[in-house]
Amino acid sequence: AGIDQAGVDYVRALKKKAGLPIAAGFGISSPDHVRMLDGLADVAVIGSHIINLMDSRGLGAVDEFLAACGG
């Protein structure tokens, strides 16, 4: 699943109105989700997914995920 159009529209409208950097973190759980936010949000918040990865597969899985996201 990807980021739904309503979420994309909301982030776009918020960024335009706020005139500030925007962080988006609604269901971000794959490198593809992070890439979908490129050019839309300034920051992808992946806290819950990182905690889940750490609990289930350890720090190495977190490192792999971050590397796949380009970080």
Short description:
This protein is mostly helical and 71 residues long. It has 4 helices and 2 strands; from the N terminus they run H-E-H-E-H-H.
Report on the architecture of this protein:
This protein is mostly helical and 71 residues long. 58% of the residues lie in helices and 6% in strands. It has helices spanning 5-18, 31-36, 47-57, 59-68, and strands at 23-24, 43-44. The chain has a two-stranded parallel ribbon with strand order 1-2. Strand 1, helix 2 and strand 2 (43-44) form a beta-alpha-beta unit. Helix 3 crosses helix 4 (59-68).
Tally of DSSP β-strands = 2
Strand numbers in spatial order across the main sheet: 1-2
Beta-strand proportion: 5-15%
Helical percentage: 55-70%
- Taken from the alpha-carbon principal axes, the silhouette is elongated
pLDDT < 50 stretches: none
Structural class: mainly alpha
- Number of H- or I-type helical stretches: 4
Gap from first CA to last CA: 22 Å
Q: Compute the gyration radius: what is it?
A: 13 Å
Summarize this structure as a short list of keywords or feature phrases:
single chain; 71 residues; mainly alpha; two-stranded parallel sheet; 58% helix
SSE layout and pairing:
Blueprint (H helix, E strand, L loop, with lengths): L4 H14 L4 E2 L6 H6 L6 E2 L2 H11 L1 H10 L3
Parallel strand pairs: 1-2
Helix pairs in contact: 3-4
